[in-house]
Design brief:
The structure is a single chain. Strands 1-2-3 form a three-stranded antiparallel sheet. The relative contact order is 0.26. It is elongated, with a radius of gyration of 15 Å. A hairpin with a 5-residue loop joins β1 and β2. By secondary structure, the chain is of the alpha+beta class. The two termini are 16 Å apart.
Length: 65
């Protein structure tokens, strides 16, 4: 059997936590930060869980069971 290749775009965007959950970074974090409140910008720092509806799709892209 050939090896399963990881989608290179997905490996840059998602990571697996120690508990086995999929994590992603926040959207809206890259530019126009002056108009966003400090509280909102602080919230962007933490990684977020991938939505339950997308977990199966992302796992397939990463080649994770």
């Amino acid at each position: 059997m050939p090896k399963v290749k990881t989608a290179s775009g997905a490996k840059k965007r998602f990571k697996l936590s120690a508990a086995g959950k999929l994590r992603r970074r926040h959207a809206m974090k890259s530019h126009n930060l002056q108009k966003k409140s400090s509280k909102r910008r602080r919230g962007f720092r933490k990684d977020n869980d991938v939505a339950a509806t997308d977990v199966r799709r992302v796992r397939k892209l990463l080649g994770v069971k």
